[in-house]
Specification:
Largest sheet: 5 strands, antiparallel
Number of strands: 10
Number of domains: 2
Shape: elongated
Strand content: 15-25%
Distance between the termini: 23 Å
Order of helices and strands: HHHHHEEEEEHEEEEE
């Protein structure tokens, strides 16, 4: 459902950008084609920004994605200008100044990236609110829990410990990496030994966080996963 929701978001975004381009005297076919440049660049911006730790790195990422978008737009227009393209659709076009304006491009891509991020988080919260039961073995017994009852999972070499929001604890032999895949995006890996339910994180610092009354360590490798 989340994937379908994100696809819907980008289809709407494409339509809105295409509508703006039509107002700049592009045909709908050309506008849709050109608008396809914006979405991958915005997704790239959204993906790279959390990986940039220092402010100067974020500036470099923004400039690199901006230059990529401008180059792709110019290249696309060069193809539209090609003398080998004789049909009406490929008729000679001039690059509209607004499409190579860094401020305009930056605002559009930032809005798309922030919108997608906010929409994804809303979908995540909505899906997390829906009951989802999971069954597993603990001490030779079958235990069934609502996924949202699990506060965090701790790995202890040969087994893991599932801790619920009300303090109950269950032992299980499934590896923490497998639990991460099973539980999905509502849970975040903060350490090689800890997987935490985002819903129960109440505070965090550079090296630890508080979840369901427990203080858990955050390793440098997984620090950016919380952003």
């Amino acid at each position: 459902m989340k994937t379908a929701g994100r696809i819907g978001y980008w289809l709407v975004a494409l339509a809105l950008i295409a509508a703006i381009l039509v107002s700049l005297n592009y045909t709908w076919s050309q506008a849709i084609l050109i608008s396809l440049v914006f979405c991958p660049c915005a997704i790239l911006l959204e993906w790279l920004m959390p990986k940039a730790v220092r402010p100067i790195q974020k500036v470099y990422v923004a400039l690199a994605v901006l230059m990529l978008a401008i180059l792709l737009l110019i290249l696309l227009h060069c193809l539209l200008w090609s003398p080998f393209m004789k049909t009406e659709f490929w008729r000679m076009l001039e690059v509209q100044p607004v499409l190579v304006n860094p401020v305009f491009l930056g605002l559009v891509m930032a809005a798309l990236a922030l919108g997608d991020n906010a929409w994804s988080k809303w979908l995540e919260r909505k899906l997390a609110a829906q009951p989802r039961n999971i069954s597993f073995y603990s001490d030779r017994k079958t235990v069934t829990l609502d996924v949202q009852e699990i506060a965090f999972i701790e790995s202890n070499d040969t087994e893991v410990r599932l801790v619920t929001r009300d303090g109950r604890s269950f032992r299980n032999k499934t590896r923490i990496g497998q639990w991460e895949a099973i539980l999905g995006e509502g849970f975040v890996r903060i350490h090689r030994s800890y997987l935490v339910n985002r819903a129960y994180i109440t505070s965090s610092s550079d090296d630890s966080l508080l979840a369901a009354g427990h203080t858990l360590p955050i390793s440098r490798k997984y620090r950016n996963a919380l952003s």
